[in-house]
């Protein structure tokens, strides 16, 4: 048995916008607090991270605090690329606001201009996830993004990953942890133990 903790990065410093591949940072103090809480509440020996700075900076802090941790950067765990809307403040969208509304109502049918389609994003995320599960034999922390965590849950629970409700109504808060358990001996069988918990709500060292 191995535990995999899916952690969404902390709240970014940018103005309200769709942040996909835009490399926006998290305040240094927030990263430090998250690192301290992760150390206090979770037990793991490997860190896997999206390369975007809002994730990788926290991963690097954790490794600096504990030299026994291994670190792997996986580009396929990046958030969805939102194309022409990526990183644009909501208040500056203008007529593109209608495009965003259509995408929100049906992301599978209304892809964003020059953005990644939902199907490509899903396939990318699940390809990386299946590879991670196959090669996981030790407790692992994956620092990634809300969209990635949602598609992993949809895949694991055999939910409809095309449904807009998955992205609109499933709350995956910044800094939250989703706990999955895998059994490598049983062809990567995965069980969902908890979804979107705040670090403050987790008992210390739940991996022990």
From TrEMBL:
Pfam families: His_Phos_1
Protein name per UniProt: Histidine phosphatase family protein
Native species: Vibrio agarivorans
């Amino acid at each position: 048995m191995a535990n995999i903790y899916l952690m969404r990065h902390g709240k970014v410093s940018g103005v309200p916008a769709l942040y996909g591949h835009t490399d926006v940072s998290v305040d240094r103090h927030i990263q430090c607090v998250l690192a301290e809480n992760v150390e206090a509440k979770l037990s793991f020996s490997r860190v896997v991270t999206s390369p975007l700075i809002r994730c990788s900076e926290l991963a690097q802090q954790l490794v600096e605090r504990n030299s026994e941790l291994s670190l792997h950067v996986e580009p396929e765990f990046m958030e969805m690329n939102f194309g022409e809307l990526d990183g644009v403040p909501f208040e500056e969208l203008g007529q593109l606001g209608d495009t965003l509304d259509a995408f929100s109502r049906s992301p599978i049918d209304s892809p964003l201009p020059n953005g990644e389609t939902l199907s490509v994003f899903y396939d990318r995320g699940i390809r990386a996830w299946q590879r991670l599960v196959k090669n996981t034999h030790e407790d692992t922390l994956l620092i990634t993004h809300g969209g990635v965590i949602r598609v992993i849950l949809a895949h694991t629970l055999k939910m409809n990953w095309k449904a807009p409700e998955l992205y609109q109504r499933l709350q995956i808060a910044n800094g939250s942890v989703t706990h999955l358990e895998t059994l490598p001996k049983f062809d990567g069988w995965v069980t969902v133990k908890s979804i979107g918990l705040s670090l403050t709500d987790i008992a210390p060292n739940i991996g022990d």
